[in-house]
Fold this sequence. Notes:
By secondary structure, the chain is α/β, with parallel strands linked by helices. Helices cover 35% and strands 26% of the residues. It contains 7 helices and 7 strands.
Amino acid sequence: MTPTEPLVRGAAAETAVRPPLPVKMVIAGGFGVGKTTTVGSISEIEPLTTEAAITEVAAGVDDLTHTPRKTTTTVAMDFGCITIDPTLKLYLFGTPGQERFGFMWDDIVEGAVGGLVIVDTRRLDDCYAAVDYFEHKGIPFAVAVNAFDGKVEHPLDEVRWALDVAESTPLLVFDARERGSVRDALLVVLELALARTEG
Length: 199
């Protein structure tokens, strides 16, 4: 045994027990696009949600045309986490979708490395605010088109044109109900954020 071997073993042991790096990511988008479902599909803990029943008054304000079975809505945030590998753990914060809760976004986004903006192509108007927010703040983000009922209403190039997002902004299709699909979408944001720090 060489004199350096105990040092190497000590360094390896320290690496093995070191907790994963915590990384904050935001899940954003309009009302009823699948933010709570996204967090719940991937979280390794029971997700924290702040769901409240949709009242008759709220139903008159929030468009339930495309989500008639929706009975609750997020009024503060969703929270979950997922360990990507032994060195990295994602903490996911879902924003409320309604404009009247927009005052909370600055606090939720604080310290985030990036965001996943979820889009329902049947209601593109509902996601303009989220796209504008991330662009204005200079936070790296990807746009994820949620495949409701397994289909997307418009081709991705039309969605990009309608949202007026740069070619450098990743645009993808995913299914908020499927863990693997959500994981892949989050990894796109993570890679984007990493490229930003290296650039």
